[in-house]
Amino acid sequence: MTIYFYKVCDPYGCFSNFSLHPIEIEGTVWATVEHYYQAQKFVGSPDAAIIPEIYIAQTPEKAAALGRCDTRCVRSDWDIVKTQVMHKAVHKKFLTHIDIREVLFSTGTQLLVEDSPCDYFWGCGADKSGQNHLGKILMRVRGELTNVRRSQVQSQRSGGACNSM
Ligand SMILES: Nc1nc(O)c(N)c(N[C@@H]2O[C@H](COP(=O)(O)O)[C@@H](O)[C@H]2O)n1
């Protein structure tokens, strides 16, 4: 079965990058994955001054609007690094927040798809032909955190130290 998600208020809305789950990365706490992701577009770019504005944006929608402004100059390697940036942030989100990690685990091996009508890179787009990179990252993180949990359980069973996620 396929699980489609998009809006935060809908079922599985916690999979959206706009969900209000803060992440700490390199000592900085970002309000949402979207805040972090949009800010990373400008690291080392001539428009890096926008980063603090994105950081303090009141909502993920405002952070996204700041990051999507066409007149600003995105870092030159953005297309190369953006999926790595997204993976780092999404992994941290589900490592940090136990409740939504359980929601992610509850999806088992089902296909996760960001049902964005306009985004053919991160989502599936209006006609479902998009690349769905956010869904792919979520499924990768689900596998990675499942493996971590499995090795912790095995370690506990064999009398090792308990160091739960
Ligand atoms: N909830 C939501 N609303 C939107 O308007 C969206 N576009 C998305 N998708 C997310 O948007 C981010 C991509 O932004 P850029 O186009 O690269 O600036 C990414 O977080 C998608 O998951 N979600």
UniProtKB/TrEMBL annotation:
It catalyses: 2,5-diamino-6-hydroxy-4-(5-phosphoribosylamino)-pyrimidine + H2O = 2,5,6-triamino-4-hydroxypyrimidine + D-ribose 5-phosphate; 5-amino-6-(5-phospho-D-ribosylamino)uracil + H2O = 5,6-diaminouracil + D-ribose 5-phosphate. Residues 4-145 form the NADAR domain. InterPro entries: NADAR, YbiA-like_sf. This is NADAR domain-containing protein. It comes from Dulcicalothrix desertica PCC 7102. The lineage of its organism: Bacteria, Bacillati, Cyanobacteriota, Cyanophyceae, Nostocales.
